[in-house]
Amino acid sequence: MDPCKKRTINFSKKEVGILMSLVxxxxxxxxxxxxxxxxxxxxxxxxxxxxxxxxxxCGDPFRDAKVLRxxxxxxKKRSKQKFADEKTYLRGTGGGPVKPKIIDDIDKQVKExxxxxxxxxxxxxxxxxxxxxxxxxTPEGSRFNISDSELPNEDIEQMEEDGKDSNExxxxxxxxxxxxxxxxxxxKLHTPKSKPWKTILKKACANKENKNVLSNKIISWAxxxxxxxxxxxxxxxxxxxxxxEMMKERHKHQMALETKxxxxxxxxxxxxxxxxxxxxQLKKRSAAIC
Length: 290
What we know:
The chain has a two-stranded antiparallel ribbon. It has a domain at 13-119. The chain has 8 helices and 2 strands. Residues 131-151 have low confidence and may be disordered. Helix content is 68%, strand content 3%. Strand 1 and strand 2 form a beta hairpin. The protein is mainly α.
């Protein structure tokens, strides 16, 4: 690699727009999340084809696949940051001068390529939900209303049913309130537990008892296992001691036998020597007589 390699000139806005349009053409391969060898080779080939098309359109200076890939990566990072700043500003509490719009056509092209990676998913359940008859104010100061006519019919019917249920509950609650508060004590003000709640409490108590039984079984099992492990370590030690004692007895018995055999062998040799001496003496006597 040449250490004195010169840096190419910056991308113009037109070149960046052409690059984004070509990336949009090959986004199925370039933005694939798989990173195995086959997909990496496909991505490299896609960038090489993109580089050829880009240079045939723009001409000089020549931009290879590595430069175009780095430029797209940096532009994607900048566009994500712009959209994040815009989202933070829209969720602010207000105050101060109006912030100018920072998102341009290139950022919109990047958004078209990567989609929800930049904007995220719409909220459906909290205060950012799009349903409800509310008035919203844009950063420019204009206001617009979201009316019930823009909601689906199923949502409107569900809202009406929820309203009826809440009204019925309020009427039942007002009818249940006592009229003479002088006879009311703090104990009477306690709301009785409902049947479903009692059932839940019973189940919770039963589950607690079952957990206690299970924990006791686990404790006893652990104690039995510890005892078994201690016995498993104790029995080999006893077996080793018995083997050592047996080896000692066997060695002692063998030494006694060897000692007895050597003593008997010595006696036999001594008797043999005596007999040989007597034979020699007899021979001498017989020779002297002759």
